[in-house]
Write a structure and sequence with these properties.
Jelly Rolls, five-stranded antiparallel sheet, four-stranded antiparallel sheet, 3 helices, 9 strands
């Protein structure tokens, strides 16, 4: 006769060994405590954002036929009279109302010829274009001041019939942060912070008091600490 085995019972007399698949599932009650709530969004005070600001200006010669100018990387400045004396970036006021700190990453400019004829009858100097990383804005007074820079280029504006113009770009690295209320604090102290530097230009022998070229420029800025 085969041996019969007795089922095991617990101390209470109930049969044990119910499988996992048969275990009673706990049904949600519909209460908020039963729902899996998303964790709060983590926002760092050091959160950053890269923005590009664009502007346009016309570059004019003086009454003596000299072109001498500096296009600053500081997004808060007002341009000099030979650029039209307007705000360098019209969007800056809105941007600065939302962030606390700023530094420039890159500044680029496209130069397009406007003056079509040499009305003076002679050939002027090429327009010298270069980058200055100095936080102190200095408008060049000689041709040599511009071409001494390592990235200097010469553009024969009046003789340029190609239609391509010139492109010039500068990347800035290593400076500390500045507040949006004073993007270039080193303009008087010489300390490199925030948005130092400029694109400088110089040339002589141009027709007097005329727009020599148009400039479309783009500044790339890194912003920190959202307000």
């Amino acid at each position: 006769m085969p041996r019969r085995y007795k089922s095991r019972r617990s101390a209470t007399g109930k049969r044990r060994g119910r499988s996992r698949g048969m275990r009673r599932q706990i049904q949600p009650t519909g209460l908020v405590s039963d729902l899996k709530m998303p964790s709060p969004r983590q926002i760092s005070p050091l959160q950053t954002l890269v923005v590009q600001l664009r502007g346009y200006a016309g570059l004019a010669s003086s009454g003596a036929g000299v072109v001498a100018a500096a296009l600053p990387f500081d997004p808060s400045v007002t341009l000099a009279a030979n650029f039209g004396a307007g705000a360098i970036f019209t969007e800056w006021t809105s941007v600065s109302n939302m962030w606390q700190n700023v530094k420039v990453l890159q500044f680029e400019a496209e130069f397009v010829r406007v003056q079509t004829d040499d009305t003076k009858g002679d050939i002027p100097e090429p327009l010298a274009i270069a980058s200055s990383t100095s936080p102190i804005l200095v408008i060049p007074s000689t041709f040599q001041q511009v071409i001494d820079n390592g990235d200097a280029q010469l553009w024969p504006v009046i003789q340029d019939y190609s239609g391509r113009g010139r492109y010039h770009a500068t990347r800035i690295r290593g400076q500390t942060w500045a507040t949006v209320s004073t993007p270039n604090p080193g303009s008087s102290t010489g300390i490199s912070a925030g948005c130092p530097g400029s694109i400088i230009m110089y040339g002589t022998g141009y027709p007097a008091s005329v727009q020599v070229c148009s400039i479309k420029y783009t500044g790339t800025y890194l912003l920190r600490t959202r307000i």
